[in-house]
Design goal:
Radius of gyration: 60 Å
Largest sheet: none
Strand content: under 5%
Helix content: over 70%
Number of helices: 1
Length: 142
Amino acid sequence: MEKHRWRCADGEEARMRRNNKQEEEEEEEDGEEKEEKEEEKKKKRKKGKKMEKKKKKKRKKKKKKKRKKKMEKKKKRKKEKEKKMEKKRKKKKKMEKKRKKKKRRKKKKETKRRKKKKIKKKKRKKEKKMVKKRKKKKKKKK
């Protein structure tokens, strides 16, 4: 009987040891699972961060492209405005030149006219003088 009890105790101890071993294995497995889950989480987080970085980069690129386009448009507009202004300036210059030419011509004409008038006046005066002289001569002869 005692032998049986001893064996039983022995069996109990063995069972306890087995149970302990099983519990330890389960804990170990749980720990491994936990670790795996943690690693999975880390990976996901890393992937998320990577994706976020990628998205950020994409956004930045898009913004840069948009800004570049805007700048190009601005430059184009500025160039066209400059072209228009240049055209206007040239036109103004041309008109000014024309006006000056016209003025010059008018002045020339005016001077010519005045000169002619003067010459005519002189001629008339001379003619008058000559007529007077002739008359005087005729009177003297008589």
